[in-house]
């Protein structure tokens, strides 16, 4: 496993070096890997914001029954992924992204091919938009608290309690709070805007965090790493699936899903109109949503599959529904205003 | 070429009703569709207008100009109703400040919202435009809010409604067709009753039709009665004429014959006697022809207006044989009758049957040589009675029996015997009028076998 991955990373690095020279891709690729045998005569190209290692088990299982198929998995940021489809008409067969609003905009602007099957119809309403956009993973936006905090203080259950905790212990938290930067991260912007929509408490929390010289992050991974390292006491709005897997609750810290509400992010997939082999893309979607695919996803990838029943039992978990409401925060004026307000509150001199 | 029969009244009435029903069904279909589509469009327009209003109300003047903070609900409400794609465009003083710059829009519609259906990108959208004036730095700014949505949900409603409307139209058409058929049936019932009443009448019933009929049928009824009256008068005249003719022809002929026979008896001159015998023969021929012509006229008339009743063939045959016995005796012909012990009942016109039998027996006697034997036999068959008259005459020669039964046609071998050629055609006509058969064959060993078959009751 280890050497294979190293080799793969090496190849990906080489490819990343070569790609800009050939000019094949104008959007910024973070990683690219090819799966499958060299003699494969069909190729499925996936452009994704999800790290390759999360998807590898699913890809290998999908290819296991299709020896004639090769799969190219390209990782890019959510904005680059959106740009690739919306502006550059990249010839990829599937687009996978956690930036729900951007995915929604692609589908709404007619940049998704329809697909209807038993698998897609089995999705709950909020996890599917028409026959164009399909969610396959639900990930709560959680709060992480370091064990060093929990050793002294009780874990907060709501935002009110979290605000009180921060306000009452400024010395402990000053300079040691982390959160997503909505200006550079699509996921961070989505979490922040959905928070602002859900509750007035969010702005007060931002106010309080802003007073404690917060650290702004681009990605969940870095926040988790810094928390583990002890540089952060608290991290707000972290993608839960990564955190739960990496954090030792007894020694490092706790993953908390706040009880007043916890937004649940949906990772979604669509077939762009520029797909070279859309039917292969449809087959991959069907596999992803099939019972076997879901079971493997739950077990091996750390990405919780769509499960309406589980959400029904936890009423504080609010899935961000796929729908035109998501388009509101993509409006240029709306975005500028929101970010200005957020920056004013969060970055205090 | 036969003229095409005009369409039946019932069918004509029914088809006209179907035509009206079809037109009404199509009208119903179109009406339901139009109304429902208008309603669906109005619903979508209302939601679009609500969305645009929500955006317009959230707009406010700010330091840099106008601040349009699109409320989440503005788009979420569109998504809650249908999964249609959403586009928007916001303008300040006719300049796009955010949204889809290429989105088409209706002209400014005054105070209320203006609507437009237009193709956009790869689809067709319903567009609403709402205008609002906002004071910025003391100067009013025209704010235009344009919200558009694809029409998938509306099209789905339209499809469903079209199906319902089509079902409604077809159902209406079928019901109207059924009721139309019943109506046509009941409208024409008096006519059928009248026809039934007229056709049920007996052949000699020429009374005026006294039948209560709707006013539309009164002209037909009075015309029919007028016609019946004229027919009755004509028939009366014909019957009178026949009787007169019989009387006027037969009586003088009988007188001539008696006088000639007296003259024959009173003269000894051979030449005169030969002449007188020739006269008698000619008179006989004329009387017979006259009788047969009258018979034939009677048969022709009666077979069209048969007076049906129970007829015992055994009795008729016996009587007829009896009536020709004197003529047969004159020439020492032996008449042998068989099969008349049992009654043989059929339904028919006794007068006609008598005429047929009389002609057959007459023929047999006439064409038999002296001292010959004639057999008249009656026998039951399977569903039939048949009567055979067998003689030892000269047969029917080369001509077939069917040909001889034609009117005025005589065999090629009968030149020396008095005859009109009407006898067999009378028999043929009677057989046909009773649904029976008549055939004529040469017998083995010479002579003729005439066979008349009549159906049992």
UniProtKB/TrEMBL annotation, chain A:
This is Extracellular solute-binding protein. It holds the Pfam family SBP_bac_11. PANTHER family: PHOSPHOGLYCERATE TRANSPORT REGULATORY PROTEIN PGTC, THIAMINE-BINDING PERIPLASMIC PROTEIN-RELATED. GO terms for cellular component: outer membrane-bounded periplasmic space. Keywords: Signal. The keyword Signal applies. Residues 1-26 form the signal peptide. It comes from Oceanomicrobium pacificus. It comes from the Bacteria. The keyword Repeat does not apply. SUPFAM superfamilies: Periplasmic binding protein-like II.
């Amino acid at each position: 496993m280890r050497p294979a991955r190293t080799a793969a990373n090496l190849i990906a690095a080489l490819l990343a070096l070569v790609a800009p020279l050939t000019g094949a891709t104008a959007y910024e690729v973070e990683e690219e890997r090819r799966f499958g045998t060299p003699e494969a005569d069909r190729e499925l190209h996936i452009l994704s914001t999800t790290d390759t290692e999360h998807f590898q088990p699913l890809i290998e299982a999908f290819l296991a029954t299709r020896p004639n198929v090769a799969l190219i998995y390209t990782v890019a940021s959510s904005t680059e992924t959106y740009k690739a489809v919306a502006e550059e008409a990249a010839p990829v067969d599937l687009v996978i992204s956690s930036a729900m609003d951007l995915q929604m905009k692609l589908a709404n602007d007619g940049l998704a091919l329809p697909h209807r099957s038993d698998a897609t119809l089995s999705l709950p309403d909020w996890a599917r938009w028409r026959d164009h956009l399909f969610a396959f993973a639900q990930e709560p936006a959680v709060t992480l608290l370091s064990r060093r905090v929990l050793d002294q203080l009780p874990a907060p259950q709501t935002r009110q309690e979290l605000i009180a905790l921060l306000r009452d212990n400024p010395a402990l938290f000053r300079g040691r709070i982390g959160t997503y930067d909505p200006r550079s991260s699509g996921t961070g912007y989505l979490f922040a805007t959905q928070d602002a929509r859900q509750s007035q408490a969010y702005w007060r929390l931002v106010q309080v965090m802003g007073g404690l010289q917060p650290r702004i992050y681009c990605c969940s991974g870095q926040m988790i790493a810094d928390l583990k390292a002890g540089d952060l006491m608290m991290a707000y709005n972290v993608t839960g699936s990564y955190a739960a897997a990496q954090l030792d609750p007894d020694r490092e810290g706790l993953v908390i899903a706040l009880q007043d509400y916890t937004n649940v992010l949906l990772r979604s997939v669509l077939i762009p109109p520029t797909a070279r082999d859309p039917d292969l893309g449809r087959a991959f979607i069907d596999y992803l949503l099939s019972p076997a695919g879901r079971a493997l996803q739950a077990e091996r990838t750390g990405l919780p599959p769509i499960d309406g029943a589980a959400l029904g039992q936890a009423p504080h978990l609010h899935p961000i529904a796929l729908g035109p409401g998501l388009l509101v925060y993509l409006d240029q004026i709306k975005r500028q205003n929101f970010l200005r307000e957020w920056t004013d509150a969060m970055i205090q001199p | 070429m036969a003229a095409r029969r005009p369409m039946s009244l019932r069918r004509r009435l029914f088809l006209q009703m179907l035509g009206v029903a079809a037109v009404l069904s199509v009208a119903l279909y179109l009406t339901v569709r139009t109304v429902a589509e208008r309603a669906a469009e109005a619903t979508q327009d209302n939601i679009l207008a609500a969305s645009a209003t929500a955006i317009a109300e959230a707009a406010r003047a700010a330091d840099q100009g106008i601040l349009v903070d699109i409320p989440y609900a503005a788009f979420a409400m569109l998504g809650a109703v249908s999964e249609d794609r959403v586009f928007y465009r916001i303008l300040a003083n006719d300049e796009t400040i955010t949204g889809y710059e290429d989105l088409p829009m209706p002209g400014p519609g005054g105070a209320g919202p203006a609507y437009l259906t237009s193709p956009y990108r790869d689809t067709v959208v319903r567009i609403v435009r709402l205008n609002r004036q906002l004071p910025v730095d003391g100067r009013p700014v025209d704010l235009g809010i344009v919200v558009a949505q694809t029409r998938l949900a509306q099209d789905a409603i339209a499809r469903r409604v079209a199906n319902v409307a089509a079902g409604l139209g077809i159902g209406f058409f079928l019901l109207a067709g059924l009721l139309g058929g019943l109506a046509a049936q009941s409208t024409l019932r008096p006519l059928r009753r009248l026809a039934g009443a007229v056709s049920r009448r007996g052949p000699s019933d020429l009374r005026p039709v006294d039948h209560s009929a709707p006013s539309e049928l009164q002209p037909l009824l009075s015309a029919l009665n007028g016609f019946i009256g004229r027919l009755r008068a004509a028939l009366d005249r014909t019957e009178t004429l026949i009787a007169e003719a019989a009387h006027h022809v037969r009586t003088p002929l009988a007188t001539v014959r008696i006088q000639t026979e007296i003259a024959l008896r009173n003269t000894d001159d051979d030449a005169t006697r030969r002449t007188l015998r020739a006269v008698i023969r000619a008179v006989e021929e004329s009387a017979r022809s006259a009788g047969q012509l009258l018979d034939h006229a009677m048969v022709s008339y009666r077979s069209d207006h048969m007076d049906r009743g129970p007829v015992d063939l055994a009795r008729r045959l016996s009587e007829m044989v009896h009536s020709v016995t004197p003529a047969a005796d004159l020439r020492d012909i032996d008449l042998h009758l068989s099969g008349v012990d049992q009654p043989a009942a059929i339904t028919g016109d006794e007068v006609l049957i008598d005429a047929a039998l009389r002609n057959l027996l007459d023929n047999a006697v006439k064409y038999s040589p002296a001292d010959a034997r004639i057999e008249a036999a009656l026998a039951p068959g399977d569903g039939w009675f048949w009567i055979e008259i067998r003689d030892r005459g000269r047969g029917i020669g080369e001509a077939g029996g069917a040909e001889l039964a034609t009117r005025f046609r005589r065999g090629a071998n009968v030149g020396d015997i008095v005859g009109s050629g009407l006898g067999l055609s009378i028999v043929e006509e009677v057989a046909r009028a009773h649904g029976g058969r008549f055939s004529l064959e040469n017998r083995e060993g010479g002579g003729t076998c005439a066979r008349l078959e009549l159906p049992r009751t």
